[in-house]
Specification:
The complex is a heterodimer. Chain A is of the alpha+beta class. Chain A contains 8 helices and 11 strands. In chain A, the strands form 2 sheets. A 6-stranded antiparallel β-sheet of chain A has the order 1-2-3-4-6-5, covered by helices on one side. In chain A, strands 7-8-9-10-11 form a 5-stranded mixed β-sheet, with helices on both faces. In chain A, α3 runs antiparallel to α4 and α6 packs parallel to α7. Chain A is elongated and about 80 Å long. In chain A, 30% of the residues are buried. The mean pLDDT of chain A is 92. Chain B is α+β, with helices and mostly antiparallel strands. Chain B is built from 2 helices and 8 strands. The longest helix of chain B is centred in the C-terminal third of the chain and has 11 residues. Chain B is globular and about 45 Å long. The chains are: A alpha+beta, B alpha+beta. The interface between A and B is medium-sized, with 31 and 33 residues.
Chain lengths: 260, 112
Amino acid sequence: MLEMLDEKMLCAQFCAQIKLHRRDNGMVLLETPFAYPDGDQYPIYLTETGAGGLRVSDGGHTLMHLSYENDVDKFFEGSRSILLNQIIAEQGISYDGDSGQFYLECAPANLSEAAFRLGQAITRVYDLTFLNRSRVASTFYDDLQEQISAFVSVEKVHKNFAVAGIPNADHYPVDFCIDGKNNQRLFLFGIPNRDKARLTTIFLQYFIQQRVEFDSMLVFENQEDIPRPDLARLSNVGGDMISSLNAEDDFRRKLLKRVA
Amino acid sequence: MDGGGYSFELYLRQSFHNTDDFSCGLKVIKPDGQPLTLVRYNGGGHVHGEIVFACNIHRATYQAIAAGKKPETHAEETNVYRTLDGALACLLEDAVISGLLHVAHDAPNLFD
């Protein structure tokens, strides 16, 4: 099969996916197979530079597309900003902060390479969404559940537990209710961020107000990331705390003390 | 807009670079913080499959979710609007959203 592959046929296949569009508004766009996850293809704009070359640009659409479901300011702060600059450097593209455009300039003879480089860069920029707090939080909960399962048998663990006998119990789900010693329930909450710390404080206060019998344990993704006032309020109503999933020995010891 | 732990956001986007590149969408923020785009009314600034530089409406579908794709992958070409305001008017009507400022539909294009 491999011997039958023909470069001309392959080139024709690649070329069939590349089209040049001259729009009524004077804009020239290059159509490529590069597409966002929702199927919208990357608009790649071509303009002439003063030096006789071409500017290949996303026209600011990458950030616009990201903004549908993300706060784009976050891409220019902290870890995301470091990664964004790394992508820009590695792909050899530029970013115009005034217009929000990713672009590069090339000679007409190098247009295909430039288009592929920009396409790859846009893909990498878009994939920074994998760092979204909610998605990272999801992996934290997965990791938390995995650790709990390593210490406690599955039948003792009730995920997203609604406390029976209290008003609006569905509005106050417990991340993990674990059957403890002497029929004492252990309410275990994962705390990946400040919002969840505040929410858990409200939940625990509500359970106390409703005279629910329970012990509680709070497992942080990184306790040092939680602002001190939020942590103080949570400490007042919560039970044992685990500073991070890295504190595996402490987590096991505290958990088994209540459950085994 | 908020209800039962779910909040809804209506957003508008207009490119400075290309007037044809605009969007207005409606998304729901689920209790776990994850957004889900329910509908998005796009301008004609890009290609989407067989839709070549024409306005198109994305809708979240069960089929896309079941297939593990982006929920709003499905898109259909439309000519019921040509501008961002027109797209917004259509979205508000289709999604039965009231209480916002009145937005007029685009006038019919006499050359269509």
